[in-house]
Amino acid sequence: MAATGFLFVALVLPLAMLFEKSFRDHDGKFVGLANFERYFGTPSLVASLWNTLWVSLLATCIVVPIAFVYAYAIRRTTMPGRGVFRALGLVPILAPSLLPAIALIYLFGNQGFARFLLFGEPVYGPIGIVIAQVYYCFPHAFLILSTALAIADRRHYEAAEVLGAGRIRVFLTVTLPGVKYGVVSAFFVVFTMVATDFGIPKVIGGRFNVLATDVYKQVIGQQNFEMGAVVGMVLLLPAAIAFAADRWVARRQVALLSARAVPFEPQKRRGRDMALLAFCGLIAACILVVLGVSFWASLIQYWPYNLSISLRNYAFTNADASGWSSYFNTLAMAVCVATIGCSVISFGAWLVDKTRGAEFLRGLVHLLAMIPLAVPGLVLGIAYIFFFNSPRNPFGFIYGTLAILVLNTIAHFYTVAHLTSLQALKQLDPEFESVSASLKVSVWRTAWRVTLPVSSPALLDVWFYMFVNAMTTVSAVIFLYGPYTKLASVAIVNMDEAGFTAAAAAMGCTIVATSAAAKVLHSLLAAWLGRRTQAWRAR
Amino acid sequence: MLYAISMSQQPYLVVDRVAKHFGQFQAVRDATFNVNRGEFVCLLGPSGCGKTTLLRMIAGLETMSGGRIIQDGREISNLPPTQRDFGIVFQSYALFPNLTVFDNVGYGLHGRGKSAGEIAARVDELLTLVGLPGEAKKYPAQISGGQQQRVALARALAISPGLLLLDEPLSALDARVRVYLRHEIRALQHRLGVTTIMVTHDQEEALTMADRIAVMNAGRIEQYDTPARIYAAPATPFVADFVGTTNFLKAKMLAPGRIVSGGVEIDAPTPDGANPGSDLRICVRPEDVMVRGVGDGTPNRVDVTVEELVFMGAFSRARLAGPGGMSISADFSANLLRDHSIAAGARIKVALPAERLRVFAG
Ligand SMILES: Nc1ncnc2c1ncn2[C@@H]1O[C@H](COP(=O)(O)OP(=O)(O)O)[C@@H](O)[C@H]1O
Ligand SMILES: [Mg+2]
What is the ipTM of this complex? Predict the structure, then answer.
């Protein structure tokens, strides 16, 4: 089956190769755990493992409570402006992780204008990493918690109230248990994101080493592939644990919501609403300030000496030889990823859901489709180096081309797209195919006439999800770009490294503008589609 | 089963020892029955007894673990659904939500060498047939459940199938619509003469609609017969219990044709294979408990006390306590209650007519 083949080439084989590589020495001899011994015997490497752990934990413990309150305000209160706050809360998704890090340098760096807020502590290092990660991870935590808070049965609250429970007691006994799974899930997702993100520590980490930057240094800097593989395996660990824990919690979560649940309607409570409005206003302001600073930074000539405004930083050739071409590479890649990914993934989901027989293969596809969620982009990136660089690989020719970037990015974001498609298909009557068979109509015709039109909103979502993620991704592709396929996010890393911070900010803003435009287009298309299909969806 | 071997009487569908396993679980065991051309057959049984599974095997939507199915002289056991000749209506109707009523009904007519005009004419004809002219432009979500049901029926009939399969087609509807559509479907089936198998768990539906009923229990067909015989002469205690209401009375065999229950000796047809002294169960329907003209000399007479009378509209259901802890439900019309001054606490004489009793081992 096509989907199995795709997942094997794009995911399983590269990861297997990485796994194998970590047990071999430079000449390919099997050395057992020797590489791991060497790793744990190198104090600097172990130190960055430790650094990664505590920084991730700290950032997670900051971002989850903030996102919870923010999501609570939007889902469970009558606070004014909930729609606007929801949109603003998602803004950081549009930017690559590098951008908030750059903005923080302008704010709190050696010449930053808000430096005094750090009381002399340098922003380069853990402080900067944690702040930037909080910014970058916030929308992800917010989305998960918002979904968890969206569903509630009013009757539980009414019952608690009738029984005379106070507000705090209701919160502790009704609200929290209902969203426990969401909170745990948000915690693990954020922890994994922070632990495996490469862009932020690269830009603002200074001398503070973490696992993600170690991999980069070992592989790109020292060409020490074995050690890179080992660090990759270590990096796989927190993500794999988080993934397993997430599944475990999901299984224990009983469905609180029966089909006959009465939707929760928040009551007006002025004091609470105003307090939350202040809180959300503050968070939204921070989000906008960071974005605004990046934009402003991209326009000033030479911080802090020449503050005149110009578009000169957008002439990227001054800072990076590939100039605008890296942006167009990214755009081309994102369109390919979205289009090919959307087709392959939804077709795979269709096969899993709608075909009969080959139970084993269908189960396998579904299982494999879950793996990318647990594999950090960075790890997938090195795995690709090993796999596609291998002289024995018949697909080796795609190394250094746009194709490998597309393949890698599709694999990287496979899971969410797969689940979205699958969920859309599951909402269709399972007997459509049986009806077609009885009418002697081929499954393809039914797929074309019914399944595809009915699930088109989900396909649209998948397309834009893939597009925006492909626009902003950096961690995997940094290992895979070739001389002619440099991407915008890679250019940001390079320009920042070379000291062209303003140009890096300008590139970041270009990406944000593109993603934002895509988002707007998405809403317009979704509305148009909604109107077109309104006739038959209407009751 | 022996059938006269003449072409005209050859059954249209032969289901022969068909079985289905899901792993260790046996969903259908040795199902055997024949359906004649133009006949309306119901598969009746409680939820989970394997009705849908059996129907889906006839359609080819589920593979068979054993047995064979012959339709119109052709063995179809291993054919995929596309190579069989049937139309099907599901419990959920499975109407295509994004297509109009017209397109839904015409869905199977495309790609058969018909012109657009011919298709339109056929769809109109079908919509008129099911009583929905003028609804062609609407989408499924815009019509009522009963109308959706009829669209699904029209879609299934569009390709003029030799066999119509209905899986609980009425169970999603309101009680009133359900009763109305029972007659509609039956009349339509008569008019078209299409051989039909309908799955239902509603005994009233089966009794009013079917020519023959296959009563299923735990994957097995317990009885296959006309509604009247199923009701009057249930073959097993399960059938007696599932179809209509019935009293079960514990009894012991005295001699062939003679049993004793609660100390009362009764004439009744004893089952084959039972010996004097074996435990038996008597089945008697509440409406068969006789009061009129019962005297001291009436056979199978029982003296009872009326413990409770529950008004049920056209009749009242009485709980009667007899000797030896015997408890019988009986249905009495208002007339009877008046004529015999029956009220709670009254002591009366009733008879259990031998020809209405079914006796099972047990
Ligand atoms: N695909 C399946 N896998 C395992 N068990 C099944 C499957 N389909 C049906 N069953 C089981 O077979 C039994 C009969 O199911 P079904 O034919 O749907 O019952 P009915 O239609 O009489 O309610 C049920 O116990 C059901 O759980
Ligand atoms: Mg069923």
Answer: 0.82
